[in-house]
């Protein structure tokens, strides 16, 4: 008891100072900002959908119109991404390896889908690919309608996702240089062997990352696609438009469930992208 009486009194000021010394303002600001902007809205969506119960959630998530929109959107985005993998690689190769008049202008236009407002991009595509548009008029005689059809959504996804592949590949090609190609040719390899065995392997991680980013962007796009599509269920309806239609019908439960499904799919895609980037980093280190 005597020893306890000899203990110094609790110093509140010193305790607060010690806490403040360990407190990091940048860390706290970052956590608060991410919580308000990112984490809390996602948690609200998850908790709201979870409150419906598994049976109701599954019924809404697997409704025929919802499943049809998932299949159409992901299938179209996958085909568009695979084509962009080829054409984006070719475009990046030409921009890095060739010098020609207007190269800087063409290089700058690659970023237009990034900078252009999505509704403006949709309006431009709907005008150019319409039945009497600059490009659409060449398909009209063959009975091919691009705008307000699934083909219009496909063209819009190509437009949206192309810059991701090109901009991901360009730094890798610039760093690679042309020396390894010249060495391969000097050793007697053909052009095809040089491309397949020397050039392509180091590009695969960058191509994969660009395709994954473009695929994610195409799946989540709304403003561009809603203008060039007819937005008819079981034809070319995409999930973001389905969410809006449900909100307009005051079906908040259905909109919440579709939003939660899109959130889950987006998280899976981000996980795949991170794995591809880590694989690419390990590949480059080796």
From TrEMBL:
Gene3D superfamilies in the record: MetI-like
Membrane topology type: Multi-pass membrane protein
Domain ABC transmembrane type-1: 70-273
Keywords for the protein's UniProt record, in alphabetical order: Cell inner membrane, Cell membrane, Membrane, Sulfate transport, Transmembrane, Transmembrane helix, Transport
Compartments, record wording: Cell inner membrane; Membrane
Major localization listed first in the record, in broad terms: membrane
InterPro entries: CysT_permease, MetI-like, MetI-like_sf, Sulph_transpt2
TM region positions: 25-47, 67-96, 108-130, 142-166, 203-232, 252-276
Keyword Cell membrane: yes
Annotated NCBIfam families: 3a0106s02, permease_CysT
Family: Belongs to the binding-protein-dependent transport system permease family. CysTW subfamily.
Subunit structure comment from the entry: The complex is composed of two ATP-binding proteins (CysA), two transmembrane proteins (CysT and CysW) and a solute-binding protein (CysP).
Role according to the record: Part of the ABC transporter complex (TC 3.A.1.6.1) involved in sulfate/thiosulfate import.
Name of the protein in question: Sulfate transport system permease protein CysT
């Amino acid at each position: 008891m005597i020893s306890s009486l000899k203990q110094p009194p609790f110093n509140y000021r010193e305790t607060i100072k010690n806490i403040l010394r360990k407190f990091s303002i940048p860390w706290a600001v970052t956590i608060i900002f991410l919580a308000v902007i990112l984490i809390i809205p996602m948690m609200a969506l998850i908790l709201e959908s979870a409150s419906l119960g598994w049976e109701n959630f599954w019924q809404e998530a697997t409704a025929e119109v919802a499943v049809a929109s998932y299949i159409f959107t992901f299938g179209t985005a996958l085909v568009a991404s695979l084509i962009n993998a080829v054409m984006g690689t070719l475009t990046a190769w030409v921009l890095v390896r060739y010098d020609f008049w207007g190269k800087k202008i063409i290089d700058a236009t690659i970023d237009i889908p990034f900078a252009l407002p999505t509704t403006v991009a949709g309006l431009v595509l709907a005008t150019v690919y319409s039945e009497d548009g600059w490009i659409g008029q060449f398909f009209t005689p063959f009975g091919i309608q691009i705008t307000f059809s699934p083909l219009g959504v496909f063209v819009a996804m190509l437009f949206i996702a192309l810059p991701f592949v090109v901009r991901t590949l360009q730094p890798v090609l610039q760093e690679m240089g042309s020396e390894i190609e010249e060495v391969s040719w000097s050793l007697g390899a053909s052009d095809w062997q040089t491309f397949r065995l020397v050039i392509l392997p180091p590009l695969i991680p960058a191509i994969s990352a660009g395709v994954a980013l473009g695929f994610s962007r195409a799946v989540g796009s709304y403003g561009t696609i809603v203008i060039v599509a007819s937005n008819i269920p079981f034809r070319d309806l995409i999930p973001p438009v389905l969410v809006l239609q449900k909100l307009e019908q005051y079906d908040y439960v259905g909109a919440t469930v579709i939003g939660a499904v899109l959130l889950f799919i987006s998280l899976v895609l981000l996980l795949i992208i991170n794995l591809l980037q880590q694989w690419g980093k390990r590949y480059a280190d080796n």
